[in-house]
Structure formats: structure tokens, C-alpha cells
Specification:
four-stranded parallel β-sheet, 10 helices, elongated
């Protein structure tokens, strides 16, 4: 297996070459990305380790994205691994904020919504039901989201880095691999997921408003308003929708996290007693 390393930092090139030399058949390291087209034309490389920044005046990764596009234009492009990508503090904070917000939107961890569904369970062991809730977060984030990402990355579908992407990116990944029929299957699956999500959040919202108003009479008007809001959410701008969802998720998490902090000693005590009984 032949590896090409492109990095303007000599220390990085030497370190990577020392680490990878014993694992691969051939390691070539260069510091000037302008040599890249000629090397790829003359050499059959299996993978390219590409630096993201070659101009010290710009640390936004645009250099790496430019050469990545050039590599992908080749008839048989090698696999590309982007390395040493970094930017300013604001960019790092924005990346962390987006990652956290998307994770919360996906698994609802810390929002307090899942407890409404688990409270309806017919069980005498609240700790066991809580473990099921923890498993839900693991299955959704680690299993489902990872599988979705692997489908997109392994399919070879075009990814517009730096721009918002919706369900069309996942559909494109499936259709690229399995053909046109996969788009129908994926669309139907997404409709089922979306419909079940709408029903679930409708239940959560109705329970919230019934508790706040101390009456079930407000539930029916809530569902009427909720139906129109669902239509609005399906037709509005994707970026605006994410901003609204992030804002309301953050507002929900504040009182719930405070409650979790106040109840942490009770949760710890019940968990300890449960597992002690299980050992017996």
C-alpha cells in the first residue's frame, strides 16, 4: 500500500513517515502541494494524508479543501485523510456548539422529554427503567448516527463541506450505492421516522401544557396549534429551523439540568440500592 503525505511542516512529515514506514509498502512525503498533480499522475497511491493549511496567513482550511477538490477530479482518486486542521478560537467554539446542539437534537439527552415516556411504564424498578433511557441515548448516537455517517462517507457521494445538509445527503448516499430504488425506501423510512417523532413530541407537549395549566381542556387546542406548526417546520428554511430548535432545546435543558442537580443524591441512592439487591 502506497501513502502520500503532503504537509508544509517538516516535523509533521518526518514524524508521520517514521510512524507509518513499518506499516505500509511505500511512504512519500512532500511539502509543496503544487507537486501533487504530477505525483498522482505518475504514482499509484492508495491514500493521501493532506494538510489543511499551507498559507500561514489563512488558517480556515481553504487550502486543503482546494487540493481535496483537485484530487477528487482525477479519474481514479485515492482515499484522502485531512490532517492538522485548525482555526481560531471562535471557529473551534462554533464547531463544539454545533456538535453539542446536533447531539442533543438527536438523542434528547438532558432535555427531560424522555422521562415523560418512561414515566408511563408499568414497572416497580425505576432504576431499571432509567437504564433503558441511558441505552436509548447510546443506541441513537453511537449506533444509528454512526451508521448514517458511514453510509454517507463510504458511498462516495459528493459532500459539500461547510454547508448545511439535510436528509437529501443520506438519500444520496443510499442511491449512489444501491441505485434509484433506494431513494424510495429511504424516503418512506424517513417519513415513518418523522411521523413517529411528531406523535412523540405531540404527547410531550400535551403533557407539559396540561401540567402547567392544571387542566386537560387545553390539550385539544394545543394539538390544533401543534398541527399547523408541524406544517410550518416542514416548509421553512433549514438554517432557521435549526436555530429555532437549538434555542428551544437550550431553554428546555436549563430547568431540567437544575432538577437533575437537585435530585442527584436521590438518584445515586436509588441506583446504589438497586444494584446491591441485584447482586444478592
Amino acid at each position: 500500500m502506497k501513502i502520500l503525505i503532503i504537509d508544509d511542516n517538516r516535523a509533521v512529515r518526518v514524524s508521520l513517515k517514521l510512524v507509518l514506514d513499518s506499516e505500509f509498502d511505500s511512504i512519500t512525503a512532500i511539502g509543496d502541494p503544487r507537486l501533487l498533480p504530477a505525483l498522482l499522475a505518475n504514482g499509484d497511491f492508495d491514500a493521501v494524508l493532506l494538510d489543511m493549511n499551507f498559507d500561514n496567513s489563512r488558517l480556515d482550511g481553504s487550502d486543503g479543501l482546494f487540493w481535496l477538490a483537485r484530487i477528487k477530479e482525477m479519474p481514479r482518486p485515492p482515499a484522502v485523510i485531512l490532517i492538522t486542521a485548525f482555526g481560531d478560537i471562535s471557529l473551534a467554539v462554533e464547531a463544539m456548539k454545533r456538535g453539542v446542539s446536533r447531539g442533543i437534537f438527536s438523542n434528547e439527552a438532558g432535555l427531560g422529554t424522555g422521562s415523560i415516556a418512561h414515566a408511563c411504564a408499568d414497572t416497580k424498578k425505576p432504576v431499571k427503567q432509567g437504564v433503558f433511557g441511558i441505552f436509548e441515548v447510546f443506541a441513537d448516537t453511537i449506533v444509528i448516527c454512526t451508521l448514517t455517517a458511514m453510509v454517507i462517507l463510504c458511498s462516495g457521494t459528493a459532500v459539500s463541506y461547510g454547508t448545511a445538509a439535510g436528509a437529501e445527503l443520506t438519500i444520496s448516499g443510499f442511491t449512489t450505492t444501491y441505485g434509484g430504488w433506494a431513494s424510495i425506501f429511504t424516503a418512506v423510512a424517513l417519513c415513518c421516522f418523522a411521523f413517529s417523532t411528531i406523535i412523540g413530541w405531540g404527547l410531550y407537549g400535551s403533557r407539559f401544557i396540561a401540567f402547567l395549566c392544571r387542566s386537560d381542556k387545553v390539550v385539544r387546542p394545543f394539538f390544533v396549534v401543534y398541527s399547523f406548526v408541524s406544517i410550518l417546520g416542514a416548509t421553512m428554511d433549514l438554517g432557521l429551523m435549526w436555530s429555532i430548535a437549538d434555542t428551544f432545546n437550550g431553554l428546555m435543558s436549563i430547568p431540567n439540568l437544575i432538577a437533575l442537580l437537585l435530585l442527584s443524591s436521590t438518584v445515586a441512592q436509588l441506583t446504589k440500592e438497586y444494584f446491591e439487591k441485584e447482586k444478592v
